[in-house]
Fold this sequence. Notes:
With about 290 residues, the protein is mainly α. About 75% of the residues lie in helices and about 0% in strands. It starts with a helix and ends in a 25-residue tail after the last helix.
Amino acid sequence: xxxxxxxxxxxxxxxxxxxxxxxxxxxxxxxxxxxxxxxxxxxxxxxxxxxxxxxxxxxxxxxxxxxxxxxxxxxxxxxxxxxxxxxxxxxxxxxxxxxxxxxxxxxxxxxxxxxxxxxxxxxxxxxxxxxxxxxxxxxxxxxxxxxxxxxxxxxxxxxxxxxxxxxxxxxxxxxxxxxxxxxxxxxxxxxxxxxxxxxxxxxxxxxxxxxxxxxxxxxxxxxxxxxxxxxxxxxxxxxxxxxxxxxxxxxxxxxxxxxxxxxxxxxxxxxxxxxxxxxxxxxxxxxx
Length: 288
């Protein structure tokens, strides 16, 4: 009977996770083969952990709803209570684009051509964007026109700050705009300011994440303690009505966590290049 509850709970948890994963919007930009392999490995490890946690909870409690909630918690809680890797990655990417824009500005002042400047700056670009820049520099040598290569670069980066740089370069490539080094320097300064603002916001919201960790830890320890040492107190949940109430409580707790995660996110600037093949219709970048 315990094995049946474990199998049932793990199966329901897997079905819920697959449903949520299918409904989640996916980025339209193409992923590299290396990134796809990395995502597959991470997903496989997380899926195995989710199923293991759901099975253990199903055996320990004999509650299918508890197994489902445990599986969902195992899938989502590492991102909630763990380090904010997404913020660090985005911050490093913004700073890398800022450094590249400043390098472009300085190299162009030395009377280097646009394509040559891109190739030279790609070789010394920060690691966060080096692969995309190397592909951009190699595109003209492969017979791809620079404007098309810049649009592909913006689509692959899918980053608002990178759009600003690509837009300036597009104006130079398509409309023979001159003296773009000043615009690139302005983009670099704007990106630096954005990175500083992100860092200040993240520092202020670190206290909120700490509070979330404390709340989740207390709740989990309380539940484990009740299951191990006061099982009679939880006996009402053995009924069908009890399972329904447990599902409602779990959904409410999950909704609160989701709300706290959403308010902790840092909104990004809107993109001005979306990867269409049409000429750039966005406004000119104004350097201040």
